[in-house]
Structure formats: C-alpha cells, structure tokens
Amino acid sequence: MAQGNIGVTSTNIFPVIKKFLYSDHEIFLRELVSNAVDATQKLKTLASVGEFKDELGDLKVRISIDKQKRTLTVTDRGIGMTAEEVNKYINEIAFSGAEEFVNKYKDNAAAIIGHFGLGFYSAFMVADKVEIFTQSWKADEKAVHWSCDGSPVYDMEDTIKADRGTDIVLHLGADFDEYLEDSKIEGLLKKYCRFLPIEIAFGKKKEWKDGKQVELEEDNIVNFVNPAWTRKPQDLTEEDYKDFYHQLYPDQMEEPLFHIHLNVDYPFNLTGILYFPKIKNNLDIHRNKIQLYCNQVFVTDEVENIVPQYLTLLHGVIDSPDIPLNVSRSYLQSDQNVKKISSHITKKVADKLFEIYRDSKEDFQSKWEDIKLFIQFGMLSDEKFYERATKFALVKNIAGEYFTMDEYIAKVKEQQTDKDGNIVVLYTQDPDANYTHINHAKQKGYDVLVMDGELDVHYISQAEQKYQASEGDEKKGMLRFARVDSDLLENLIRKEEAPKMTLSDEQQEGLRKAFEAQLPKEQKLNYYVSFEAASADALPVFLVQNEFMRRMREMSAHQQGMSFYGELPEQYNLVINTNHPLIQQLTEAMTSETVLETPETKEGEEPKEAVEKTVYTLTGKDDRLAELVDIAFLASGKLKGEALSKFVARSLELLK
Ligand code: ADP
Questions:
Q1: In this structure, what CATH number is given to the domain that contains residue 319?
Q2: What pTM value is reported for the model?
Q3: In angstroms, what is the span from residue 97 Cα to ligand 1's centroid?
Q4: Nearest-CA neighbor of 455 among 566, 346, 379?
Q5: How far is the CA of 98 from the centre of ligand 1 (A)?
Q6: Residue 592 confidence (pLDDT) above 60
Q7: Residue 481: its H or E element
Q8: Residue nearest to atom 23 of ligand 1 (CA)
Q9: How many CA atoms lie within 13 A of 283 on its CB side?
C-alpha cells in the first residue's frame, strides 16, 4: 500500500471545500454523476475513433445506497483510471483531466462535462471517507483502490476489480443521514441529472400490485438522455417540443404558446429552448423558471443575472459551457460572456416573435393577450427590445381589431388630429364603464383603443415619448393618449377654438354652489364643478377625470419614488354643459325665480346672499339637480349602492 499527500498548496483543503466552496451540500451528487457520465462518454469517444475495440456493453451509470454500511455508491463502466491517472487526476487535485482530454479529442469530445474544477472532492462535503475502485479500459492495467478519510493523506493500492470502470464509495458522515433515503437521492438525481446524456439507473422500477409496491426487473432510469434542446430543430416536431416542456415541468398542465430554439456556436456556445407560457396573473410568473445547464448538467434556475429580467417570465432551458459557474452573482453580472449571451437571447426572442407575427398574423393575434404583458415588460425595460418589438407589439380597439402602433396611428391620424397637429389616441380601460363616452366618440367618427392591461399605462407614456411626427406632416404635433372619459371629446380633440362661455360669472357661481351641494362627500376623493360650452346633444352634466393625474396615480402603483402621486386624493370634475337645453332651463329658472322665492330667514339670522338663495331655489324646488348629478355618475359607471337605489326611486317618482 502506498501513502501520499494530496497535492494542494494548502495543508488542508477539506475544511475549505466543506465550508466555502459550495454553499449547497447536495451538489456533490451532481459532481460525481457528471464524472461518471463523463468517463462513459470518453469511452464511447474512444470506441468511435477505433481506439477501444471491446464490447461497450451496458453503459448505465448506477447509484446505490447501503443503509447498513451507510454508503452511497456511484458506479460507471467508463474509461476508469490507471494508478498513474489516479495520481495525476485525483492526487494532484488542481489538475483537471477533462481539459487535457478535450484538447486531445477536440472534435469528438464536445459532450464532456468536467467543468467544475474540484468536482470529485465535493464528496467530502458529506462523506467522512471516500473510496475509489477503478479499472482502466486499457487491458494490461491493474485495478486501483484509493481511499481517503478527509485528511490530506490518502492510501492507494492495487486491487482486483471484475468490471471496467469506476465505483466511488462515499461513507456518509453522521449529519448526512438524509442521503441514505431513496426519495432524497431520487429527488436530487431528477433535479440535477434529469437530462444527462447517459442513462442513470437508481434501483428498479416499482409497480403497485394488490395494494403493495413490488419491484420489477427493469432498471429505474431517472433521466432523458436525448433532451430536445440538444437535437436539431429540423429533426423535431411540435409534439417533441411539447413533450420536452412536460419533461421539464412535470407538474405543468398547461401547454406553452410557442417556443424558440436557441443554437449559437460563435462567439460563444449556447443551446436551449425557451417557451412562452400563458401568463394569466402574477402568481403564475415564478412557478416555472428557466433552467440553466452546463453540458446537460443542471446548474441553477436562478437566472436573473444571466438573462434580462423580463425574459425570466419565459420558461425553458439554456445550456452553455461558457457561463462561469460556481462564482458569485455580482461577478456574473459583469462577465462579458454573460452580457453577450443576454443580448443575443434578447435578439433571438424578438426575431422569433416577429417571424411568428409575419407568418401567421391571426395566430399571433389570438395569442396576443397572453404574451402582451411579457412583451410590454420587455419594451419598457430594454431599449433594444423596444426597437425590435415595435414591429409586432399590438394594440386592440373596441371592435376587437389589432394593429401595430404605427398602423394604428396611420388609421386614426386623419380624424383624430387636433387643430395644433397633435394626434390624439382615445382609449378606455373599461369599455362597459365608458360606454356612453365611447358611443359619443364613435358618433364623431373616432376610434377607441382598449388599454386594460397591467402595464398599459406605462406603455402609453412610452409610446408618447418615442413618437416622432413624420416628415410630411404639416404641423409637427405630438402623440397624446387620452382616456375617452378624461374630458369632453370636444376638448380632447379640439378642432377649433373653444366656443365662448355664455353664462355670467354670477350664473356660474350660482350653478356651481347648487351642484356642489349635490356631490357626495368622500374621503380621498374630491369633486370639482366646471363649465363647458359643449354641443347641445352631449350630456347636460359629465363626470371626467384628469388624464395626467389619473395616470400618475396608476403609475405610482408600480414605480418607486412616485408615492407622492399615490397619496393625493383622487379628483373628478363634474362638467356642466352650458349649451344643453336642460342647463339653459335651469339657468333661466335660477335667474327668474331667485328674486321671487327667498328662503325664510330665521330670527336673528342675516338675510341670505343671492347665491345661497339660488341653491335653495334650485335644490328645494325639484329633484332635477340631484337627478342630473346621478346621471353624470351613472354614465361613468360610478353610481353604486345606496346612491343607485335612491336614483331609481327618484326616477320613478319623476315619472309619475
Ligand atoms: P473535473 O471533473 O473538473 O476534471 P474532478 O475533480 O471532478 O474535476 O475530477 C478530476 C479528474 O478525475 C477528472 O477529470 C477525470 O479525469 C478523473 N475522474 C473523476 N471521476 C472519474 C470517473 N468516474 N472515471 C474516470 N475518471 C474520473
């Protein structure tokens, strides 16, 4: 038996490995199984180039547990190691055998994993003692037994081993009972090794028979050796992509909307498949994450630093040997490769979306509502993506027709340009609530967009900022979005100078007080009365909400530093249409009747001012004011509960 010191500069590397190198103990299994798969792949490579001439036989990697002996064993029938190789690859641990092998067999060894540096030694994170039994594929080499108890001293001796390949035996430490549990190991294998290219067997398949679980002859294979992303897109059908989606997320019932197959070999290596899920609500978003692999070994599903944040809404896999692993997150962010990968994925995703849009508009439109959130998030957070996405990001009008923003602007430009050359896009966030306003807009020949998405308010602001008047435009106006109920239509798209106000200041003041007396008093909600000389066929009284203030409030819900707007009370304007016959009647009544009917002045009270008399006259006389205010609320979908039932009762009264 030979003894020696493991060739590391520090006298004891194991405490370092145990404590600092890997934060997750469980990855030891990933490392050992990767090595076993790696050794098997190497043997296949040697066979393919004719250097290995014997039978390859069963090449499964096997994982087994012995609860009595407290051991976990990883067995392969790969190339094995000679004593010299154990010395070189295990004892001089800084040396990575994979690198040398890849250099030698560059063209054939693409599938070699060995990217994790100190992989084998991670076994000491959970084991008090590790043994290697290995028999090289080279016929005349002796088998080797190596063992080490976690000190820098190892034992090495010749041994007899019947089969080619390597057994790594871990004598688990007292704190690591969990790795003796079948369910734990199967779970880890499914997490880290689900898509490794060599079959991995963990025990035998089981079946329920007569209420009992019985073991079958067949090996329990935990992985899929040919995952879709490693195959050529032209060899895959739609079904294959869907099947793979379900291999990736066994709990997911829903089908993805579409997929993107990534395949890059220059200037970095990257393959993968990304899927667009249906995103219904926020809860869905973080359920299935993109998984990152390194040569088919699962690395992480925390990809926030590798792909832009909006892309984390997608599902699927990314596999790249060029993403540095086992390094800190801040390092990842500054890594040049990672940056390139991120911008490449962005481009691919945008190109693919455009392709789908171009080739099958109807299909794309039918899926639009499900991908809208993702695309708008991308456009808002990534300038490059924005530029690409303007070609396929859609808006929908109340008739259910879809347009790109450019198409839409071209459609409404003629009708909806105001006297200063500004193009005004009308929209609604709730077609039912805005029914009256929408109808009015339609009558005028205007179109209305439906903007009821979570990010629409931000999207609108972005579209306004990005808009540039085209060369041919006479007046270089701006693009403005206005919710259809944010003011009278005549004001939203002003075609000519505002008509002159016909009411005197006193008349206005009188009406204002009279109407104010009818408005509900609510906390965090202010109502103001204002006057407009709108058309005679518009409603006599309108409720509108200032576009700017409302948008600021809505945006503050998503954006930090905007809470100021969120705290302000909501504001509505009750607009009195002074051209409406009913309002004109009221004004006349007010002017003629105030003088006649004066409210009684109680003893000791000052005589009431003219304005107050008006209020008294108008409100005291009949219910028309209250009715008009209610109608304004009703037309905006704001009349609810008690107010609504009062309105109904009063309306019935008026009909008598
Ligand atoms: P890496 O995998 O990064 O090279 P490891 O410490 O995991 O680092 O392994 C060091 C070397 O030991 C490997 O490159 C390989 O040459 C050899 N080795 C490890 N496990 C096996 C195995 N099961 N069969 C054959 N060789 C192995």
A1: 3.30.230.80
A2: 0.75
A3: 6
A4: 379
A5: 7
A6: no
A7: strand 479-483
A8: 36
A9: 0
CA-proximal residue: ligand 1, atom 16 (nearest) = 97
* pLDDT greater than 50 at residue 393: yes
For residue 422, give both structure tokens: 């500004």
Residues 213 and 274 in one domain: no
Which residue, judged by its Cα, is nearest atom 15 of ligand 1? 97
- Give the per-residue pLDDT at 54: 92
In this predicted model, what pLDDT tens digit does every residue of 61-118 receive, in sequence order?
A: 999 999 999 999 999 999 999 999 999 888 876 444 445 544 554 443 333 333 434 5
Q: What's the chain's average pLDDT?
A: 83
Assigned domain for 416 exists? yes
User: How many A from CA of 62 to the centre of ligand 1?
Assistant: 17
Please tell me whether residues 404 and 428 are part of one structural domain.
yes
| Strand 2-5 versus strand 402-404 pairing type | unpaired
| Domain span including residue 438 | 393-492
Residue to probe by mutation, ligand 1, list 6, 89, 125, most atoms within 8 Å of CB: 89
Residue 80 alpha carbon to ligand 1 centre in Å: 10
Quote the CA–CA distance of 449 and 457 in Å, as a whole number. Answer: 13
Rounded to the nearest whole angstrom, what is the distance from the C-alpha of residue 34 to the centroid of ligand 1?
9
Asked if 436 and 293 sit in the same domain, the reply is no
Kindly state whether residues 148 and 254 are assigned to the same domain.
no
3-state secondary structure (DSSP) of residue 650? helix
Spatial separation of the C-alpha atoms in residues 429 and 448, rounded to whole Å: 10
H-helix or E-strand spanning residue 637: none
**Distance, CA 17 to ligand 1 centroid (Å)?**
16
Atom of ligand 1 nearest to the CA of 35: 20
| CA-nearest residue, atom 2 of ligand 1 | 114
Q: How many domains does the chain have?
A: 4
The tokens describing 514, both together, are 């009279």
| Residue 524 backbone dihedrals phi, psi, to 5 degrees | 60, 25
Flag whether 268 is in a domain. Answer: yes
Q: Identify whether 19 is part of a domain.
A: yes
Run of H or E residues at 275: strand 270-276
Residue pair 206/190 in contact by the 8 Å Cβ criterion: no
Q: Is residue 544 part of a domain?
A: no
Neighbours of 407 (CB within 10 A): 12
Are residues 292 and 108 in contact, defined by beta-carbon separation less than 8 angstroms? no
Same domain, 34 and 182: yes
Query: Who lines ligand 1 at CB under 6 A?
Result: 31, 35-36, 39, 76, 78-81, 89-90, 96-98, 114, 116-121, 166
Question: Ligand 1 centroid to 38 CA: how many Å?
Answer: 8
CA 519 to chain centre: 43
